[in-house]
Amino acid sequence: MKVIKLKLEALQPLVITDGTTEGQTHKTLEYIPGNMLLGALANVWKRNNPNVTPDDSDEFNNLFLNSKVKWGHAFPLAGDEQTVPVPLCYQKLKNYGGLPSVGSKNAAKSRVLNLSSIVLDSEQKLIDLVINDKKEWGLDENEAIKLKKFDLGFMTSKEKCQPNIHKTWNMHVAIGKDRTAADGQLFGFSALGKGTKFISEIYCDDACEQSLRSLLDSISNLYIGHSRSAGYGKVAAKVLSCEDVASQNVDANTAKLFLLSGYISNRSWELPLNNLEKELQKYFENAKISKLYCLYDNLKGFNNLWSLPRKARQMLIQGSVIEITFDKVVSKLPEAIGGSTNEGYGRILVNPEFLNAPFVDTDDIDEKNVKPEASSNLVHSNVLTLLKTRAIYRIAREAAVRFVSRTDIAQFIESQRKSSDISAAQRGNLRNMISNVPQDKWLAKFTEILDKTPGIQWKNSEGRSPFDGCKYYEMSDIMSKFLNPTTFKETFNVSKELPKLLGQTPNKADEDIFFKEYYRHALLNLLKEWDMKAKRG
Questions:
Q1: Domain range for 330
Q2: Which tens digit of pLDDT belongs to each residue from 369-420?
Q3: Are residue 184 and residue 319 in the same domain, yes or no?
Q4: Is residue 341 situated within a structural domain?
Q5: Nearest to 233 by CA among 5, 38, 8, 6
Q6: For the residues of 207-226, what is the DSSP string, one character each?
Q7: pTM beyond cutoff 0.85
Q8: Measured distance CA(199)–CA(189) in Å, rounded
Q9: Quick check: is 350 in a domain?
Q10: Last residue of some domain: 378, 412, 441?
Q11: Are residues 187 and 214 in the same domain?
Q12: d(Cα 200, Cα 77) in Å, to the nearest integer?
């Protein structure tokens, strides 16, 4: 069995997702999953062999389907060092430093515990252990210790230093059905920045080594992730080494197993943890799980060839730590166990050094001229204009909500609270007009209503006018002033509501957009509040 180290560098931003969302945005992964790498290299193979049907090719099956080649997740580099997932048994002292990041120079402030190696008797407290064994942390014996979990991430196995993973948020103009820009519509991608580097470890049978090396050496244009036609996904690949796989030895009757990648049951009906214990019994006689620090997740995906989502698979996530007891070692633990090992899942480290001590000693890694990439697409003027317009709409609507809380507007609505002279139907007609008729025609339409039978309600009703010191006037006069944009704007000082946007003072066009949106929603909010007061009586 051979292990090939493949270095990847993002030549363009990378949109790497697992199919889930956070709010209305996709969840960005900070590594390249093995199944995504497998798919990208399968496309390279097909491009190199245009006259060969993949299903009929033994080479294709060996490389991608039957687990003779196991494509490993590509984890980000911290400086020039490989990383592993942060163990779930790591927790930091609250209000103290956690794991340092590249270039942070914060290793001396780190206060991190490895819970898998801490054993307390019934009379011992955690603070006693810290004070006795870690005096350099400088904790007081009366200090209350609170632990805090880490966010899922990566670290180097020696220094326990985390990589600086730079992300960008790039805005784009949506394309309509006619293949032109859709007016006012934007979408964005959160992406791993250009220049991000990764290492993937690919395991292969000796018989597949030559065909795998030939495939990797043939890479010219490699694209990974989503939105490749929009300037994302191009990576450079370089083989760093090809070596024999080293054995993992176990000398005692207990072992700590660290999930370098997620574990998926090889039986779809069985929970991953139950299946893992059964799998381990093939290699460790009478293996039993005695302690665990783990989380479950659902692995989602999409098959581009079939244009269909893949069935969700439950897994123990990478970074989980499981301690087992057993009678003796039956056989050597393979490089990966469980299901979907060809996609990089099921990789386990046995008794890694970073799980030995109860206190995690960290060290700094210098940053070597790494600069975060700017979100370049924001420089396009059409995107800036659309972004500013959307911001103006939001500001206008938020300001319109505050409109009904003005003292003069509240007095106007209160004057109508017990009045039944203006019916709900008339308020509904007014609402429909404001929603569907251009603003410059509101006053004319309302004047037409006053000349007809429904106008009697408006002429025979009175209310406190916010335009005349809250004195009582006919509702026909008050509503005519509400529907006159010039009178409304002057009375309520609408122009003062709009702040600077993108560092620029609003121009006349910005003010016009703001006023139209604010004007419409202010009146709709007024009618909504009026309806609510009228119902309460």
A1: 254-335
A2: 444 444 444 444 555 677 778 888 888 888 888 888 889 998 888 888 765 5
A3: no
A4: no
A5: 8
A6: GGHHHHHHHHHT-SSEE-SS
A7: no
A8: 24
A9: no
A10: 378
A11: yes
A12: 10
CATH code of residue 177? 3.30.70
Tally of domains within the chain: 3
Question: Which residue bears the tokens 């309509």?
Answer: 176
416/520 same-domain check: yes
Residue 218 and residue 300 in one domain: no
Q: Does the pLDDT of residue 84 top 60, yes or no?
A: yes
CA dist list (Å): 528 to 483, 494, 522, 532: 16, 20, 10, 6
Copy the structure tokens of residue 149. Answer: 């979990």
Token readout for 157 is 């196995």
**pLDDT per residue as tens digits for the range 97-153:** 889 999 888 888 889 999 999 888 777 788 878 888 887 887 877 777 888 899 889
Contact partners, residue 227, CB within 8 Å, separation at least 6: 15, 189, 233
- 521: which 2 tokens? 């929603």
pLDDT in tens, 419-457: 557 888 888 889 999 988 899 999 999 999 888 887 888
- 372 and 443 housed in the same domain: no
What does the pLDDT look like over 29-57, one tens digit per residue? 999 999 899 989 999 999 999 888 888 89
The answer to whether 168 touches 373, Cβ cutoff 8 Å, is: yes
Task: For residue 46, tell me if it sits in a domain.
Answer: yes
Residues 453 and 516 in one domain: yes
